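sry for the spam today, last one i promise. struct tokens for design, 111 residues
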């Protein structure tokens, strides 16, 4: 499961400290095709957003009901500065408007 499987949930976790439920996206793709990569990422994020807003996250993780929801992307290859990071910041802003926290970072391993 990863960014190139837009209809799959890669991973869901819940913080024991805060209760935040985070849906994780694993992105292993290179940035050779920047527009194509961003379209794939946008679709996966949109599907996660829909999953959260529809309430399906509460069915998958019942303890999520009254807790903050988040989407986090782990990149194997750091996103290039410019259009990619601007896109990610814009996504974060839009998700924040509907109460979904958004983070992204380069995966540092290990599994």
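last one done:
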């Amino acid at each position: 499961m990863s960014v190139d499987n837009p209809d799959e949930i890669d991973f869901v976790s819940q913080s024991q400290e805060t209760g935040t439920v985070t849906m994780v996206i694993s992105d292993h793709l290179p940035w050779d095709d920047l527009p194509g990569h961003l379209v794939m990422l946008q679709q996966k994020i949109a599907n996660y957003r829909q999953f959260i807003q529809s309430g399906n996250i509460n069915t998958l993780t019942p303890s999520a009901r009254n807790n903050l929801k988040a989407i986090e992307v782990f990149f194997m290859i750091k996103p290039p500065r410019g259009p990619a990071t601007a896109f990610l910041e814009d996504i974060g802003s839009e998700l924040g408007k509907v109460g979904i926290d958004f983070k992204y970072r380069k995966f540092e391993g290990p599994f």
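The chain has a mean pLDDT of 93. ok im logging off now
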